[in-house]
Amino acid sequence: MNELLDYIEQKKHDETRQGEPLNIALNETEFKNNKHFYIESYGCAMNFSDSEIVASILSKQGYSLTPNIFDADLVLINTCSIREKAEQTVRQRLRSFNEIKEQKPGMLIGMLGCMAERLKSNLLEEEKLVDLVVGPDAYRSLPALIQEAEGGDRAVNVLLSREETYADISPVRLDKNGITAFISIMRGCDNMCSFCVVPFTRGRERSRNPETIVEEAKDLFEKGYREVTLLGQNVDSFKWKGEGKNDDKQAEVLVNFAQLLEKVALVNPLLRVRFSTSHPKDITDEVLHTIAKYNNICSYIHLPVQSGSSSCLERMNRTYDRDWYKNRVDAIRRIIPDCGISSDIIAGFCEETEEEHQDTLSMMDYAQYDYSYMFFYSERPGTLAARKYKDDMSLDIKKRRLAEIVDKQYQLSLESNLRDIGKTYEVLIEKISKKSEEEYCGRNSQNKMIIFPKGNYKIGDYVQVYIESANKATLKGRVVNEII
Ligand code: 5AD
Ligand code: SF4
Q: Residue 224, class by beta-carbon neighbours within 10 Å (0-12 exposed, 13-18 middle, 19+ buried)?
């Protein structure tokens, strides 16, 4: 039981790996201005990537980033609406920001991201918690909004766009390791999964000009980065038809996702390429063959199933059924035999029967996930499910089913990791291990974290690591030879 609790803790930690405040120390000399901003990001990788766009826009206005909120003239929180709990966390943070503001009356507090989009001006009027509310497509207007707010007006821009991709904005990297970076390749989502608020908060799907994506990857490689993750809500539906032509249904697709992957892989064989998130209805064999063809495209696919039951998937409006999903897993296993697969799973969706829940557990066995992000259903106002179905599973049932799913994943992760003992993997060294100064950690192609003694290697090196032991969360090993 303790092991299970440890595991849940670890997973919570991993899930909120993105949820930790971004306390990033930028090179202070990059900015020469006495105004400072502080930013915290919550939710998905896309939000973290957006915060880098925001940092870039603010830096052009002469703002410098501070990791210390007490030094900030502008405090920003980039928010997530995906589950109610995410919103509660943000409200709590806003209350503590407001306590600080009482001692620093000139300080501005701004809310960015999905919650800003969902709640629009309600936050200003009803709760008086923030001075600025800026939706995900409106970050270019931040400088004007800040001015408005400085003049004492409350400033809101939550307009969604059909075109905005921030393609021309070079993000200011807020990560600490200088080795791995996100590249946003598209924005929004045109799927209408019935549980999901994202189509309402991030608007219509649009793809970014692939040339700007490749340029960004090249620039990162030249700066010493060795891994990029291409981000989109549904990367498989990336399509580029040419500037101004993307809305034209008749226009020919010039670059699809498989072709984009290839272009980025060709930047340099030493640049690893990852991507997230894949949609089971859209992932093609062409994408799988492209992954198999290039050693530097990682053998890892995040393929959220959400539920293993066809009837539940139909209520979720996922537009695939159990057999379709199994077929995609079979294709992955056939074309990329060593591929890591992970999933998102929702327990206790509206009207979920015990049998449907069992279907999810058996699907997990079928897919043999290496890892899953697991949640219980949280109704979101305005979504299709909120309008059409009753959130009728009690919290007890949701929690029990979630615990069963977590337990199953614990077994699968442990078994998967134990199977790796005795194998040798290429690992990109990312950082010093949290547990020991004498050890490094980095991931293999399959996205598993591996810990090993430092030797004479440095962060950013590729090494071959022989796996000696494993638990449910990590692999441990030793370097057997350097390949580069
Ligand atoms: N309740 C619980 N989980 C949700 N997700 C999305 N919306 C909800 C919701 N209303 C999960 C899905 C998605 C992941 C990012 O969050 O599993 O893939
Ligand atoms: Fe939400 Fe579905 Fe779009 Fe993912 S694909 S962002 S779950 S609507």
A: exposed
List residues near ligand 2 (CB under 6 A): 189, 191, 193, 196, 198-199, 233-234, 279
Structural domain harbouring 55: 2-157
Which ligand is closest to the CA of 374, given by its number?
1
Could you report the per-residue pLDDT of 269-290, keeping only the tens digit for each?
999 999 999 999 999 999 999 9
Asked, for residue 169, whether it belongs to a domain, the answer is no
Segment 220-224 shows an average pLDDT of 96
| CA 218 / ligand 1 centre spacing (Å) | 33
User: Nearest residue CA, atom 5 of ligand 2?
Assistant: 191
Question: Are 8 and 79 contained in the same domain?
Answer: yes
User: How close is the Cα of 196 to the center of ligand 1, in Å?
Assistant: 6
Structure tokens at 354: 């015990």
Pick the atom of ligand 2 nearest to 189's CA: 3
- End residue of a domain, out of 373, 393, 419: 419
Same domain, 376 and 452: no
CATH of residue 209: 3.30.750.210
| Gap between the Cα atoms of 175 and 22, Å rounded | 8
State how far the Cα of 192 lies from the Cα of 201, in Å rounded to an integer: 12
What is the chain's length?
Answer: 484
314: domain CATH number? 3.30.750.200
**H or E element at residue 332:** helix 322-335
Shared-domain flag, residues 54 and 105 = yes
Closest Cα to residue 331, out of 273, 397, 284? 284
Ligand 2 center–CA 49 separation, angstroms: 18
Measured in angstroms, how far is the CA atom of residue 51 from the centroid of ligand 1?
Answer: 21
202 Cα–ligand 1 center, Å: 15
Rounded to 10 degrees, the C-alpha dihedral 19/25/27/31 comes to 80
pLDDT in tens, 374-410: 999 999 999 999 999 999 999 999 999 999 999 999 9
Residue 170 lies in a domain: no
Q: Is the CB of 196 under 6 A from ligand 1?
A: yes
Closest C-alpha to 344, from 317, 293, 309, 307: 307
pLDDT confidence bin for 243, thresholds 50/70/90: confident
Q: Which atom of ligand 1 is nearest to the CA of 344?
A: 17
Nearest ligand to residue 186 Cα: 2
Mean pLDDT score across all residues of the chain:
91
